[in-house]
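Feature request, filed as a ticket because there's no other form

It would be nice if the structure record came with a short human-readable summary line next to the tokens. Right now we just get the raw output. Example of a typical job, pasted below so the devs can see what we mean:
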Amino acid sequence: MAEGLLGKKVGMARVYNDKGEIIPVTVLEVGPCFVTQVKSPETDGYSAIQMGFGETRHLNKPARGHLKQAPALKYLREVRTGNIANYQLGQKLNVGLFNAGDLVDVSGVSKGKGHAGVIKRHHFKGGKKTHGQSDRMRAPGSSGATTTPGRVLKGMRGAGQLGNKNATVLNLEVVRVDQERNLLAIKGTVPGAKGNVVFVRKARKEKKVVKAQPTAKKGK
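Raw output as currently delivered:
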């Protein structure tokens, strides 16, 4: 099956586990997604599928021609896969891909927070609050050289746009799966605001549990 599915962020809630502990979760409506294109090495040079999510009535003629074997879908995403023989145009993919206890990676566009300074954007410490520095407490400090090279080098951290960029949170645990309503309850938070489109895939870098080695007791 596909490694991931498209969906949207519904909001946050909390659930109780068997021990009565509260678990904060993010509820995602994942799928149903439809296969809109199958790419093969013979025709495209690689193996992948294109899936769509979010039915809509507002599509132009080229988009309707591309989706003639699937419903009119608003969001499309391509996913690499090694076995395209399992997919057909118009095939429906649902949230049954995931099970409770799975680890997933969630990608989306983070909330845009406008222009921000270096303390809020990059967590700078700021200047000293003494010795006459009345206006340097939230300033970045020196960011360039003097004569050589005489300019601020590219890539230096500074004030600017905060958020509104692609972000991925790794190794989030699936707490509950509701196949009837295509809902996932994922422990923790995911990027974006309510209603934003997200991509949920099976975790690629699962956490490795490192067991502590017993320390040898020193002889007397």
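Something like this underneath would help us a lot:
The chain has one domain: 4-202.
The mean pLDDT is 87.
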